[in-house]
Design brief:
The protein is built from one helix and nine strands. The protein is mainly β and about 110 residues long. The strands form two sheets. The chain has a five-stranded antiparallel beta sheet with strand order 1-2-9-4-7, with no helix packed on it. A hairpin with a 2-residue loop joins strand 5 and strand 6. This is Cupin domain-containing protein.
């Protein structure tokens, strides 16, 4: 799979696809058209976020961070986060979740 081909942009909501999934990690590709966002939520794992196209704003625990292509950004488990493409250009980012979010669900059972 090539992360620069067939980027999963959607008209209504953000698009995404799973690139890698195993017991240890989940790697997603998020696609945001201009002005699209990923709603505010709590991080369900430790995240490493790398924009590969365009720019995004990530708000973590109320603090805004602007990221451009090639930046790397870390989010801790249970941080409150919001991702938005505030630009006029399409954006895409890789999200590495480690450990896999299901690991935490198993620990609670």
């Amino acid at each position: 799979m090539n992360i620069f081909e067939d980027i999963p942009f959607q008209e209504e909501n953000f698009g995404y696809r799973k690139l890698v999934e195993n017991n240890y990690c989940l790697i997603l590709q998020i696609a945001l058209n201009p002005k699209q966002s990923v709603k505010e939520h709590f991080a369900n794992s430790y995240l490493t976020i790398i924009p590969i196209l365009g720019e995004v704003e990530i708000t973590v625990n109320g603090i805004k961070n602007s990221l451009k292509e090639g930046s790397i950004f870390l989010v801790n488990l249970n941080d409150r986060m919001f991702i938005e493409n505030t630009s006029e250009r399409k954006s895409s980012l890789l999200v590495f979740k480690s450990p896999h979010p299901d690991t935490f669900k198993k620990d609670l059972q």
